[in-house]
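Researcher: Sequence recovery benchmark, item below. Answer with residues only.
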């Protein structure tokens, strides 16, 4: 059975499926899910992420986290965690750079939070030089200082969508028509938890919520508050989202999210305001454009240093990679960075107000 037949059978038996249920089924179904049944990254795959574009991304994040660790008195031991590490490239680049900071790696207990067994195998291979362990959720993170990175993790978490109808909301859900999946709307309901969005929306507007993003952030914030540390969240999105941002990507092209469940990547923009509000135990940095953040961390100097050993097409690719990560017309503006850090403390480098 393919995943589409499985979903159609479920909807036929149980009625319309909520969007968050659909999204997590598509991405993480144990055998037929997008992340569980294949390795979707890279030029050959469906999409390319910042760590695939250049080693500079993970290196600079590694040095920023190591500086945050030094600024907090170099606590030992501490958790060095990544949410959704994909192929493990970012963590490998991060560790290589941060290894230059005396004591950092010795004090670090490296923990990867990854739901896909297939991707855990790839990460094990990439990080074979390092002692790492895996957890299913951030709820199980140890009680010690936590320095954490999440790149393009929160955009993969399942969202719900609500369309405004007067003072009420209609939730979008998935139904079946013949052999096709269709997007429908449930009857209007009052939703007190969404009242704050009555201020900035009008009839027919669509808003998105992501409970798992909020609970995940709250867990991280709780540990940073209790034991110290910092979290850096990199993703596409902005402060408060409005409108339909659900997107399906297959073979580097956008497609219909309902067309081939389990075969396309599904993401939605991250609402950084919701994350900041969930991190009540912590301070949060300004939401900073990725290009600005990387420039502040010295990506241009690092790029020049690497360029001196390159020529021909390798040099051209390297220059294009720098541009792709930082230029406002490429990833530089679409992607944002926000850090969580202890109340009364200073934000990690590159994220000052
Ligand atoms: N950070 C990587 C990969 C981003 S793709 C990069 O920048 O290249 C999203 C990653 O999050 C994948 O590794 C996916 O398997 C993982 N993931 C998605 N949902 C998850 C969940 N609910 N719990 C844990 N990991 C999840």
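Model:
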């Amino acid at each position: 059975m393919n995943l589409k037949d499985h979903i159609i059978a479920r909807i036929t038996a149980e009625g319309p499926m909520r969007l968050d249920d659909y999204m997590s089924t598509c991405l993480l179904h144990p055998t037929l899910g997008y992340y569980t049944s294949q390795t979707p990254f890279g030029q050959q795959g469906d999409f390319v992420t910042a760590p695939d574009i250049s080693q500079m991304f993970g290196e600079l994040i590694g040095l920023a986290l190591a500086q945050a660790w030094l600024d907090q008195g170099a606590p030992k031991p501490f958790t060095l965690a990544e949410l959704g590490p994909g192929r493990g490239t970012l963590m490998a680049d991060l560790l290589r750079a941060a290894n230059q900071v005396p004591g950092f790696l010795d004090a670090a207990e490296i923990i990867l939070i990854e739901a896909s067994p297939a991707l855990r195998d790839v990460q094990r291979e990439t990080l074979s030089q390092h002692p790492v362990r895996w957890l299913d959720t951030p709820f199980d993170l140890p009680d010690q200082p936590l320095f954490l990175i999440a790149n393009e993790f929160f955009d993969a978490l399942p969202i719900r969508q609500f369309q405004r109808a007067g003072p009420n909301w209609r939730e979008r859900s998935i139904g079946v028509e013949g052999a096709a999946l269709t997007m429908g709307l449930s009857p209007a309901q009052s939703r007190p938890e969404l009242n704050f969005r009555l201020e900035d929306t009008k009839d027919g507007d669509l808003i998105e919520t992501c409970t798992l993003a909020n609970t995940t952030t709250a867990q991280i914030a709780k540990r940073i508050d209790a034991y110290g540390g910092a979290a850096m969240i990199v993703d596409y999105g902005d402060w408060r989202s409005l409108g339909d941002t659900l997107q399906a990507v297959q073979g580097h092209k956008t497609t219909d999210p309902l067309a081939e469940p389990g075969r396309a990547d599904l993401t939605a923009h991250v609402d950084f305001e919701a994350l900041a509000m969930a991190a009540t135990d912590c301070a949060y940095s300004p939401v900073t454009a990725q290009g600005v953040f990387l420039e502040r961390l010295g990506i241009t100097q690092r790029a020049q240093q690497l360029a001196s050993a390159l020529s021909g097409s390798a040099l051209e690719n390297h220059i294009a990679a720098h541009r792709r990560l930082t230029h406002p017309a490429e990833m530089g503006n679409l992607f944002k960075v926000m850090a969580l850090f202890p109340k009364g403390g200073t934000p990690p480098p590159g994220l000052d107000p």
